[in-house]
Every structure is written in structure tokens, then in C-alpha cells.
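Q: Start with the shorter request: fold the first protein.
A: Done. Sequence, then structure:
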Amino acid sequence: MAKKLGVLVHGAGWVSTQHIKAFQNNPHTQVVAISSRKLESAQKRADEAGLKNIQITTNYEKALQNPAVDIVCVCTPQHLHAKNTIAAAKAGKHIVIEKAIANSVDEMRAMRDAVRKAKVRTVVSFVLRWNPLFETLKAMIEDDAFGKVFYVEADYQHDIASWWSGYEDARKKSTGVSALLTGGCHAVDAARWFAGEGRYKPANPVEIFAYSGGYRKGLKKEFNYFTNQWEDKKAPLEYDDLEVVLIKFDNGSIGKVCVNYGAIMPYAFPFQVFGNKGTVKDNLVWSHKFPGQKNWVTIPSILPDSAEVTHHPFQGEMNHFVNCILNQRESHANLEDAIKTHEIAFAAQECYRTGKPVRLPFIT
């Protein structure tokens, strides 16, 4: 039997539980190390997963030197992703990178250069690409069910607040940057994914224009949708909670993305796809493939309707990435592709400064 690929999970927050579980369930991998800023956090993750005799450490550099490690999962706070990814690439490890991948265009460029130089594989956790409904719809796009897609919409409606363990880093302008970057990038990636022609091809952005607004910036109150109450908080959001972006893609399609951190409601991820032969509204389909159609056809699938990490298809993502490594091929969600999604968030910031449309790409 071939040696299993060893996995180091760096960062012991909420999302790391699903990385660990997914690699435990893959027959070609085993978790051999967990590193974190706090030793007790790393040990807790190991104990929860029943992992014994693995490396537990607060020293990331030392963990990277472990010869049993082949894959590194970067699950740390967003502002550390670039540094952690570059270190893993220099150590010759394949890398799973949580979003957002970086806090600036310069960081993304440095990450790309390090990965190219090391010739390692990467995948970025835009996990909705493995959501069952997304997979079904993307296959239908390839099958011409909707014809030429000319317009897409995707919205990220999530009252991000202090109930989330990562909020203290995410709420700050210096470490979170923007609502579009910290959470809304999932909607941006969904728009790219559905605007793209073919089963595994996203569309590439060439120009954007954006507005930002909302009401939560600087507000020392927040709505807790778990208790359905307003609560006093000392740590406000440091950037606008609402961003609306128009995107022009390289294939002629147009997209609209909205991220709304001020929504007084539970989490929602509505999306629409319009083609010249059919339409999608979430899991409702109208298509020329259904002659005589009188009403919407409902796809009985799993929708992207929960923010809970256990709901996200990490197993599909990790299985895909392991196959990429074993078969020496690039992921459709690798770092270089993810940069194109993230560039939209940074272009929006430039648009707010200048009030003018922004051309992409920034990184060539």
C-alpha cells in the first residue's frame, strides 16, 4: 500500500474541525500534526478527532520541518494567510488555503510567486464549488440547459457579529479589510463560477464598479439573530457592512454581487443565473430542456443555506485536492484562480476611493 499523504492543520479555529474530519475520511491521507498559537487549542482539536501520537505544537516553522507532512491546511486568521502560505510553499508542501487568502494585492502576488517557485499544488476553500446544487447546475450549464449565460447574481446575506469566534480579527479594517473580502468573496466566486462556460471553468473579471454603505460601521450595537435581540458591544465594525458590485466578465456576461452584514435575518445565499435558453433561481429551474414546462422545476438538492461549517462540502474539496496531488494536475480552485476572485474585492476598494470603474486584472 502506498504511503498516505501526511497533513498538517495550522490554526485550530472553527473551520479546522472540518479540515481534520475530511482528511481523516480520505483513504489517501492522515493528519500527522496540528499547530496553533495556543497549545491547548491544538490539543483540543486532536482529542475531539481521536488523534493520538501526532505532533502538537505552537511552532509552525518546526511543524513544517516534519518530514511526514505533505499537505498544509492554512486555517489561521485571514491576515496571517499570506505569511503562512509562503512559508508552506518554501517548505515544499502542498497547501489548502482558507479564504480570504490575503489582505492586499501585494500579498497575493508574493504568494503566487512563492507557489510557482516551489511548484506545489494549492486549493482555496471556495467550498460552494462542491455544493451538490452547485455541481448539478454547473453540469446543466455544460449541457446547454440554460444556453449562453448573460447575467448572474449572488448575494451573501449574513449578520456577521461577535457571536463568531473570528469576529475580533474580521471586524477590524487592518485585519479584515472589508465585508466583501471576509465573507462576501464566496458570493463573488459563485458569480464567477456560474458565469463561466463549461463544467469546471469560472469566468474571469475584466472590469468592476462598486458602491458601499449600510449602517453598522462604528455602531456599538449589533443584532444577534440567534436571540433575535439587539445587544450593546464595545467593538464596532470598522468598515461598511454593505457592498454592491457590478462585474463585467471576459466572456461578455455581467454579474451583480451584494454582501450584506446588516441583514436583520438568518443567513441566506440567494443566487440567480439567466441564459438565453433558461433561468435558475436558487434550486428552481426553467429550461428549454423541459418541453411544455408550465412551472418551475425544483431540484431536490442541498442548498447553500447555512453558515455552519459542518454544512459545507469540505469532504468534496479535500477529496478533489488529494486527487489533484496524486494525478499531478492543478485544481480549478487553485491559488491563481482564487486571486481573480479576490481581485474583485480589492478593486471595489479602489472604486470607493476614485469613484471610477476599475479594470482587471491587477496581477498578470
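Q: Next, the second protein, separately.
A: Sequence, then structure:
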Amino acid sequence: MNSFRPILFFAFILHACAPGNPPSTASSSAISNISPADKAKIGRKIWQNESGGSINGLTAWNAGEEFPSLGIGHFIWYPAGFRGPFRESWPDFVLFAKRNGENPPAISSRADAPWSSRGEFQAQFRSSEMSALRSWLAKTVSLQTDFIIARSLASLPSILAAAPASERQRIQENYRKVSGSPQGIYALIDYVNFKGDGTSPSEKYQGQGWGLLQVLGGMKQSASGSAAAIEFSASAKRTLSRRIQNSPTERGESRWLPGWHNRCDTYARGL
């Protein structure tokens, strides 16, 4: 059986009802047919990006945020009574894991995150439940990478549906160009996990988003392959700088910009 069928099936489930043009066959196959070696490298890079590749970093609650982030992709999980503007991804990953034959720890299948505050999360960090959760996450890095790839594959139809009709062809062409190199495939996979696809109305400051849609739309003319990945990196940095400028002062997001730009710099380098 093709190992990517579960990924493609879940990508279809994520956006089965999304309108708009489908992704080009070349762009989709470039990502879905990524080699096992490159997939492993991408998973390690995402884990490094999010938490320095540490086991402890697999369960995190960042200062200034209202929710924990779990796994190599720091999948968001909202506590009971809180629903923020960002897309919650942890429940989707748990469903993906179960559909791929995994039996996640019981704590992971709750409807809401079981910690009501960052302080409570930190107090329970060494509990047997959280230790078991980190151990399971450390053993399922490949599956988490598959989930992140599925999210990337599912993003393009929604992006094209949300883009102005006059911009769709250029955005799809930029996606194709970026997917023309291993570093570009990594960039497309990582950025959706990092900052979303840019189609959610709630993921905007002052009417401007910061997801993959905005990065692809903000790219300057470039050749396909590595050159496109380098321009994608530059566009991502411009997009995130604009997010900081538009963000509410009380969130203090400027402290994250150096790290965000460092992450985007990895898109301009080979795997």
C-alpha cells in the first residue's frame, strides 16, 4: 500500500467541502511523493523550529499565550471555556493518529485541554500523565510529520478559493515554483503548520492575514526551484513583519519577530 494514501485521504477530509480550483497535480505530487529521507529531515527541522528538538518541548505553554501547544508542530489545544482566533489543531491530530492505528494516551482525547492556566500546566509538567504524553509524542514523530504534510496538501484548494479571482493563477504558479525544490517543499509544509493557510477571517490584524495565502501572494517574480524558495523566505519575513506592526500592543508580539525571521531564513537553505 502506498504510505501516502492516509495522508492524502486525511487532506481530502480536511477540505472536502472547500470550493475553488484544485491544486495542480505537479504541486500536489511533489509534496505527497516526498522521499522518506527528506520527510524525516523535515520532521526534525519542524521539531527544531518549534522547541529546539527537545523532549520537554513536546508539551509547551508559551508565556503570553492562552493555550498549550503539543507535539513537534506545537499543535494548539484550547482549554475549556476559551476559544481563541487561531485554528485548533490538536484534536485533528489525535483523530489522524487514531485513523492510522495509534492509541494515544487517554489525556489526549479529552474535548478540551485539561489545564486551565499556564501555572497549572507547569505545576503538572512532571506528572505521570504528561510524561506519558511526551513519551508517546517522541515515538510518533513520523506520524506527526505525516499530519503536517496532510495539512499542507489540504491548504491549496482553500487558498485558491479565498484569493481574489485575478490572483489565483499567480498564487498557484508561485506554489508550483516553490514546490520545485526540497527546501521549497519544506517551506510549504512548515509554513502552514507555523502560521496557517491565511484564509480564516479570525486570523487577521487590521484586516490583514499572515498565512500561506499572504506569503504566496506577496512573492516577487522568481525562477522555479531554489530561487523561488529564497523569495518565499523573503516574502514570509515581510508578511510576519507586517503582522507585528498590525498586532495589538498588549500582546507584545514584537518579542517573537527575531525567532520568526530565523525560522523563515531556513526556507532559503537546503535541507
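Q: Describe the second briefly.
A: The radius of gyration is 18 Å. The first helix runs from residue 5 to 14.
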